[in-house]
Amino acid sequence: MKVLIADQQQVADLLPMAEAIDVMRGALTMLADGDARLPLRSMLALPGGDGVLGLMPSYLGGLQAVGVKVIAAFPGNFGTGYDTHQGVVLVFDTERGLLRAIVDATSITALRTAAVSAVATDLLARPEAGDLAIIGAGTQAHTHLQAMRCVRSLRRVRVFSLPAGSAAEFARREERLSDTAIEVAKSAAEAVRDADLICTVTTATEPVLHGSWLAPGTHINAVGAYTPTTRELDTAAVARARLYVDRRGAALSEAGEILIAKAEGAIGDDHIVGEIGDVLLGRAPGRTGPHDITLFKSLGIAIEDLAAARYVFDKAQERGLGTWIDLGGRHFGSAAAG
């Protein structure tokens, strides 16, 4: 059995952002329809608190795919030339459990995370929204700019990050790549002033976005924090917003923005309006008016990685692209016995 090995460049070539957004719509719809299985991810914190190894298994019936994402998250990589997330997505078939693909998880994570934010933005942001603020200047800032451009016409883009030089470098690079003028803000508050789209894509552990800064009608994608004790938004921001998540169970177990606001007595579990998949299917309401502040708290769930990796596999197979190797998969010793 031939196995696909897909590196970062092959993933980028086979999964452009516009297609990634459609793939994520499909995966989230399958989840809402009950056509998916995914336990809470297993996280192993390394000594010293500087790194985490995560295991994220999942199954998607509509794609006849089962797999696991193995990811090492090292926030200290920011600014070193290495991405903060390193790993692979393994895709197996559901007939005999044969390994079909080993796909780079760094690129999958970067693309699918921003693509899900785009799905949420398309559902929840005002149709005329186009004043974008990005807090953070790493890989996710790059892919979120791409994703937001796919679902809204951007009039203005501002970025803030620490150290300040990273924001300036981001602006220079993205202006060159996307022909989009990008302003470098001196503070997070300045970046989000009057913005109607905000993406927080940082490695911060304490709030970088405060509720008092938010203009009526804003939509926020909160992406960076992924543990119960870390958050990018303060309690006021969460309490002011209509809150949506990718998966309710994961959010109530792992999302610091939600858990800390609950512990402070500002919100309850019912503050979550719904999952994005339920909004897609019309089972949960979206924005109710132009002055609503909407918040999508993204943790990232395994079916998103599986759907993206399966799409890469199918497209590579269809077009005869990628690197293919024979890892066996037959009964051990059967070849020699024949």
Textual characterization of the structure:
By secondary structure, this protein is of the alpha/beta class. The chain folds into 2 domains: 2-108 and 302-337, ornithine cyclodeaminase, domain 1 (2-Layer Sandwich), CATH 3.30.1780; 116-297, NAD(P)-binding Rossmann-like Domain (Rossmann fold). The protein is built from 12 helices and 16 strands. It has helices at residues 8-14, 17-32, 105-124, 139-151, 164-178, 188-192, 235-240, 248-254, 256-263, 276-280, 302-319, 334-337, and strands at 2-6, 36-37, 42-45, 52-60, 65-73, 85-93, 99-104, 131-135, 156-160, 183-184, 197-200, 219-222, 242-245, 272-275, 294-297, 323-326. Strands 1, 2, 3, 4, 5, 6, 7 and 16 form an 8-stranded mixed sheet that branches. Strands 10-9-8-11-12-15-13-14 form an 8-stranded parallel sheet. Strand 6 (85-93) and strand 7 form a beta hairpin. Helix 1 (8-14) packs parallel to helix 3 (105-124), helix 2 (17-32) crosses helix 3 and helix 3 (105-124) packs parallel to helix 4 (139-151). The radius of gyration is 20 Å and the shape is globular. The protein starts with a strand and ends with a helix. The relative contact order is 0.19.
